[in-house]
Design goal:
Number of strands: 0
Oligomer: single chain
Order of helices and strands: HHHHHHHHHH
Low-confidence stretches: 183-198
Mean pLDDT: 75
Strand content: under 5%
Structural class: mainly alpha
Length: about 250
């Protein structure tokens, strides 16, 4: 079991713990406004479950909406609602913590700041739950990116590792294909990177270079333009034109 899976499962356990801690406190708050009776306790717990679990589920949903590139205003409005519910739960939990503060921390609570901040910290279950959801989503997203990277690398690696593999596909000399991969001074290729470039893009770029090579050969055969003029016309380096010219001469001799 890898570390990411362990961490993800731990987050789910943490969510459950936060909810188990918060729901009884929120239920107690709403029960304090009702008469005695088991029915009113059931209603109070139902309200608490609705508030706390809705906050948790919405925080998961908004992460999914963000991945789908949903309208930013919609995502923002959901986050505002999540924040409102989380703050409401936090406020209710704070009242519960204040009501039932014991003397177990009497010594540090002699400090006025600690006495004030302890109930705030002891009641922030929903804020922690939303924060954990955010971090969990980031971890899951990073795994998706890593999977996509591995997929792209597996697709393109056979082509970029060996110029001969691509050479066989496009019927060009191996050294020329290697130059196309490793250089961009011809002005025709973007930097080929195994993480960000798909195999289809590589093939398209090689095809473009082949077409440009045919243009150079055509101009060398039918015009009196200099190497520099041909390079300017085609959009490549004079060195590349010279190389094509030399290869063409070798082919004619053969």
């Amino acid at each position: 079991m890898n570390a990411r899976l362990i961490l993800q499962r731990f987050f789910w356990v943490a969510f459950a713990i936060f909810l188990l801690a918060s729901i009884p406190h929120v239920a107690y708050f709403f029960k304090s406004f009702e008469p005695e009776g088991a029915w009113y306790w059931a209603v109070a717990y139902a309200i608490a479950v609705t508030i706390d679990i809705t906050t948790f589920l919405l925080s998961l949903t908004v992460a999914e909406l963000r991945h789908r590139s949903v309208n930013a205003w919609l995502v923002s409005s959901v986050w505002v609602f999540i924040a409102a519910l989380a703050l409401l739960s936090w406020f209710i939990n704070w009242q519960y913590a204040t009501q039932f503060t014991s003397t177990m921390l009497a010594r540090p609570e002699r400090n006025g700041f600690v006495l004030w901040v302890n109930p705030v910290v002891a009641s922030c279950f929903q804020v922690l739950s939303v924060a954990y959801t955010w971090i969990s989503d980031k971890i899951a997203q990073s795994e998706v990116v890593n999977t996509q990277v591995k997929f792209e690398v597996n697709q393109i690696e056979p082509l970029i590792k060996s110029g001969s593999a691509m050479s066989n596909q496009v019927n060009l000399p191996v050294n020329e294909v290697n130059e196309m991969i490793n250089q961009q001074n011809t002005g025709s290729l973007r930097v080929i990177h195994p993480v960000t470039t798909q195999v289809t893009e590589v093939t398209q770029e090689v095809t473009e270079v082949m077409n440009r090579r045919e243009q150079i050969i055509h101009l060398l055969t039918t015009s009196d333009k200099s190497v520099t003029d041909i390079a300017t016309t085609v959009g490549c380096s004079p060195a590349y034109v010279s190389k094509v010219k030399k290869q063409k001469g070798s082919e004619n001799v053969a």
